[in-house]
Amino acid sequence: MKIKKTRTILLVAFLYLGFLVITLPAEVAYAFVKKSVAPDTPFMLQGISGSVWSGKAITAVVSGQRVNSLSWSLQPWAILLGRMQVQLDFRDGDSFGRGNVARGFGGALYLSDIEARIALEKITVLAKLPLGLQGAVGLNLAQLEIDDQMLTEAEGTIAWQSAAFSFPSQVNLGDLKLTLATQNNQIKATLVDGGGPLQAEGLLTIKQDGKYKFTGTFAARDKTQTALSQNLRLLGRSGADGKVKVNKSGAITDFTSMF
C-alpha cells in the first residue's frame, strides 16, 4: 500500500509540474531560455503574449530575418508518438506559413500538414541560397521526416513560383514544381515546369544514405529568349533538339542544415 501511495503522489506531482510548465507565461519562459539555456541562438521574439502552451509574438527574428505575427500551440498528444510537437502559424506581408513541427526524443525532425509561401528574399540568407534569386517558394507538404541528418520520408510538393534570377542578367523562368513521394525506401522528386519561359522536366532520387541522382532536360521554350538560352549553356551543351541534358549524382551529407 505504501509503494502504491508513493507512486500516486509522484504521478500527481509530475502532472502538477507539467501543468505549471505549459501554463507558464511565454514571456517568462522565453527570457529564461535566452538567458540560461541558449543565449547565443540567433532567434529573438518581441511582443510576446500567452503561455508556453499557446501564445504569439508580434515579431520573430531568425538569423537577422524578420517575421511578423508568429503564433504557436503545443500538441501534447504527440508525446504518445515519442515526439514534442507544436503547431506554428506566421504571416509577413505576402509570405505566410502554417503547419506542425516536431522533434522526436531520438532527435528526428518531423514536419506535417505544411502550407506556406515564402518570398525568396526572406530565406536566401537562412538557406544559404545564391544571391539574385527571385520569386517565392510554395510548400504543400503532407509530411517530411529527417532522421540522423538524412531525409527518410517526404510527401507533397515544393514549388518555385515566378522563378527568376537577376545575376549576371535578368532571366525569367516561370513556375517550377517538385512533387515528392516515398517509394521503396527512397525519395523520388519529379520536376515539371508550369508552361513558362523555361521548359524543364527531371527526376531526382534520394536514398536514405544521402546519395542522390538527378536526370533532366532543360530548354528555352521560346528560342528568341537569348538570355535564357545563354544561361542554359552553363548546364551543358544542347543537343539537336535544343535541349540541355543534365545528369548529376553525389551525396548530401546533412539535411538538418537546410532547416
Task: Give a verbal description of the structure.
The chain contains 4 helices and 13 strands. It has 259 residues and is an alpha+beta fold. The protein has 2 domains: 1-68, no CATH class; 75-258, no CATH class. Strands 1-2-3-4-5-6-7-8-9-10-11-12-13 form a 13-stranded antiparallel β-sheet. Residues 10-20 have low confidence and may be disordered.
Which helices and strands occur, and which strands form pairs?
Layout: H1 2-22, H2 26-37, E1 43-50, E2 54-62, E3 65-74, E4 83-92, E5 95-104, E6 109-119, H3 120-123, E7 133-147, E8 150-165, E9 171-183, E10 186-193, E11 198-207, E12 211-220, H4 226-232, E13 244-251
Antiparallel strand pairs: 1-2, 2-3, 3-4, 4-5, 5-6, 6-7, 7-8, 8-9, 9-10, 10-11, 11-12, 12-13
Which labels suit this protein?
single chain; 259 residues; alpha+beta; 2 domains; 13-stranded antiparallel sheet; 4 helices; 13 strands
The biggest sheet amounts to:
13 strands, antiparallel
Unreliable stretches, pLDDT < 50, 5 or more residues? 10-20
* Multimeric status of the protein: single chain
Bin the strand percentage: over 45%
Overall mean pLDDT: 81
Using only C-alpha atoms, the radius of gyration works out to 23 Å
Order of strands, widest sheet: 1-2-3-4-5-6-7-8-9-10-11-12-13
Sketch the topology as an H/E string, one letter per element: HHEEEEEEHEEEEEEHE
Which structural class fits the helix and strand makeup? alpha+beta
Give the N-to-C terminal Cα separation: 51 Å
Number of strands: 13
